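HUMAN:
Just now I want nothing more than another pair of eyes on a protein record. I would be glad if you read both lines and explained how they fit together. I have put the entry right below:
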Amino acid sequence: MTHIVFNAADVEVLQKAQEMEWELAGDILLVRDDYAVGPLADIYTSEGIEQRRHWWREVLAGGDYEDKADSEEVDDASVVARLQEKLAGEETETVWIWAAQNKHDVCGYYWLMSQLEAFQGRVHILYLNNLPFLNTRGGVFYPKWMSEIPPREYLKARKLARPITSGEFDTDAEDWKRYCTEPAGVRLLEGGKKLATKGLDFYDVDLRRHATSDWQKTSRVISQFLIKGTETTGDAYLLWRIKAMIQDGRLEAKGKLGHMRDFEVRLPSSENQASQQP
């Protein structure tokens, strides 16, 4: 058995669950890229992969994760190639795809399952769609991320595993193909596995609301957005959007535009002056 997860934090929790239940034993593979943002055109070709890598270089340039753009750490194509080789060589091998109800996991699911159609019947999905679990205090909650589930609850979650049907391989793959051709660069989860696509600047308005007339560390603005926002994304992407807003005058900056702790931001002084006029 091979388990697939889409967040680094999920790996550790699933490993702890495996220690508690031998039936969960198996390799754990991590799909690292966030397919909820960025270009997806021709995503399964070398040209499309390079186009996406180039986009990530631009997003991460000069930021906290700049070294990730060309590192071998993120190489999802190789992960799938190894998985396909294993499935082809071991007829009894099965795959369990773990996904919680969030846009990151669902986009990862679409991207992955579209490449595993040749192994129908051996590819299972565990989709925690509006399902209740118990937290560490025994209270009922609805997790948005796999890592929020205590390891012992994975023993219950494993009962949800079911093969991806031939109909899903058809309809989900078609839906994903359509999402990949849409020009918008942000994908949101509307419910179930349905995605809505938005522009790359989708988060700008809410992100900018956390800036004030006073100088604040960029890291604080991002942190407040992540804590209070209903729709959020990775901090590297948000840093890129803040720099874009500085460039077009929607925010002012003080300090070197590098890592998120290197500089401060505030609303433009012209807005502050206008708000102070009688």
